[in-house]
Amino acid sequence: MNSYQLRVQQRSATSSRACRKSAVRVLATAAPATTSNPAPPPHPLDGFKEHSGLKYLPEAARTRALDKKANKFEKVKVEKCGSRAWTDVFELSHLLKEGNTKWEDMNLDDIDIRMKWAGLFHRGKRTPGKFMMRLKVPNGELDAKQLRFLASAIRPYGADGCADITTRANIQLRGVTLPDADSIIKGLWEVGLTSFQSGMDSVRNLTGNPIAGVDPHELIDTRPLLRDMESMLFNDGKGREEFANLPRKLNICISSTRDDFPHTHINDVGFEAVRRPDGEVVFNVVVGGYFSIKRNIMSIPLGCSVTQSQLLPFTEALLRVFRDHGPRGDRQQTRLMWLVEAVGVDKFRELLAEYMGGAELAPPVHVHHEQPWERRDILGVHPQKQAGLNWVGACVPSGRMHAADFDEIAAVAEKYGDGTVRITCEENVIFVNVPDEKLPAMLAEPLFQRFKVNPGLLLRGLVACTGNQFCGFGLAETKARAVKVVEALEEQLELPRAVRIHFTGCPNSCGQAQVGDIGLMGAPAKLDGKAVEGYKIFLGGKIGENPELAKEFAQGIPALESVLVPKLKEILINEFGAKEKVVAA
Ligand code: SRM
Ligand code: SF4
């Protein structure tokens, strides 16, 4: 057992947060609160505000953060603001490179918690000393230069270095070590990306329409809106301290078509583009959707719409309202919905208008469609709104990527398209602006042997979270098993339509089990009386215009292919009209 493991054990035993290396200046914890500061600052805690997460909190929020019932993460933030990780990470990298100290001896809260504000997630349980680095990729748009940088960031880690497309159309790099973190962060900035404010109590990756700008059915291009929102919220990727101490994570998305690709119903804040009778495109606002171990709930209408010019001030105000008024007690009751419910929808809306300096928020725009709408499958080749150009959607099985994949995607995007791609919440990749005449040669590229443009009817809708390969919460393996299971099912069954299967390793539901036609969620199971890795099964998730969350259908299913394949086969036959393939004699 190394010194890190020993201290983790002590921490869980005693909940103590001792800092062995208090001599390391950058990682020293802040001084305790004092009331003896004689200077004029209006609040007694301002004496250490540079170090404390209390800096931007008004009196009432400070009281909540300091309350003895505040959750343990509030205490970590009061001790030292997560935003300090934005400078600590550079000094820490330097110290480790110099060989003056070891990561194992660093302050546990800095390593395991605060580094997440810089986007570094210690995978201490599965791969001690290795970090997952979560980026921000607004609207999932990446260019060839960025893709090549991502390849170069993970290549040095050999077998440990891989990456994932996430369920928020984002990228996570794996195998990263702290001595390298500073140069990777600088490299990200140079290509216009960042890892800052991607974890802990921050706004997550901003999602939009993955085919924005080329989609014949979009009401508005979500990319410039999300880019502006990103740069406003996160100070162009360098971190915005004012928003470093929210009560909890916050998911925000903008939807611009009836397909609702970014799932407004499961985001804390969803902006739904609608056309007003006068022709202007504005956004109906829905709030409060989220998944967690204890509660899964769809968003509710906020009872207002915002114009394009109100979008950023509204979002900024919403963050301030959440920061200043949000609950900081039981961690399971701190998502935005709890605040909305506590104050009531009307009062919440009034607070937002007040924080916007008394803005007028118009009522929501009533939308009525004569015709039903089938949510589109965007994999494959599709004509764009620009004549003669196409987007090409390719399936990345369960979102797992390697250095060579990034390089190859960059090369294909440059050779046949405009050098950019989009990644999706379904963990796939879309090439855009491909001229008709280039399609045949493009589709013959070896990349599409691995990342198929026309995958099977199960693989095309497969989504899987990280699972217990890297995630300490994981109760089950997800990605590799998910691919094997659907491949076996596709071999055995004829399907009348695509069925979306979502694997998630635990009830946090990062893999969104409740939105799948079929959802599998890591859970305990027994086999021959012995505890084994297993899943719960959910059925009936609907996405798009009339969303519904899937309901629990079965539990305690052992996570063995020999059990899962027949169980899912039975479900696909009974509920989705699948038929056994006739094997030629
Ligand atoms: Fe998640 C925590 C991975 C999307 C709900 N999520 C985690 C952590 C950070 C836990 C940890 O420290 O190990 C996981 C990191 C594992 C790893 O090594 O990758 C993790 N979440 C993911 C990703 C990578 C899953 C994936 O394979 O795609 C997704 C990253 C999104 C991104 O780019 O930012 C991811 N997580 C989600 C989603 C889906 C979404 O946003 O649409 C959800 C459900 C929606 C929601 O948040 O309401 C989700 N993750 C959670 C929760 C439960 C939140 C709660 O309120 O309780 C946790 C636990 C927590 O925050 O305490 C969590
Ligand atoms: Fe980890 Fe659970 Fe999220 Fe999967 S659902 S990434 S296992 S926290």
UniProtKB/TrEMBL annotation:
Task: Give the residue spans that cross the bilayer.
Answer: none
UniProt region (Disordered), positions on chain: 30-49
Catalytic activity field: 6 oxidized [2Fe-2S]-[ferredoxin] + NH4(+) + 2 H2O = nitrite + 6 reduced [2Fe-2S]-[ferredoxin] + 8 H(+)
Question: What keywords would UniProt list here?
Answer: 4Fe-4S, Heme, Iron, Iron-sulfur, Metal-binding, Oxidoreductase
Question: EC?
Answer: 1.7.7.1
Requisite cofactors: siroheme
What is an example of a Pfam family matching this protein? Answer: NIR_SIR
Classification via InterPro entries: NIR_SIR_4Fe-4S, NiRdtase/SiRdtase_haem-b_fer, Nit/Sulf_reduc_fer-like_dom_sf, NO2/SO3_Rdtase_4Fe4S_dom, NO2/SO3_Rdtase_4Fe4S_sf, NO2/SO3_Rdtase_FeS/sirohaem_BS
Gene3D superfamilies xref list:
3.90.480.20, Sulfite Reductase Hemoprotein, domain 1
Give every Nitrite/Sulfite reductase ferredoxin-like domain span: 125-188, 382-446
Question: Which pathway does the UniProt entry assign to this protein?
Answer: Nitrogen metabolism; nitrate reduction (assimilation)
Q: Where is the Nitrite/sulphite reductase 4Fe-4S domain?
A: 200-357, 459-561
For this chain, one GO molecular function annotation is: 4 iron, 4 sulfur cluster binding
Q: Which family does it belong to?
A: Belongs to the nitrite and sulfite reductase 4Fe-4S domain family.
> What is this protein identified as?
Ferredoxin--nitrite reductase, chloroplastic
Q: What is the taxonomic lineage of the source species?
A: Eukaryota, Viridiplantae, Chlorophyta, core chlorophytes, Chlorophyceae
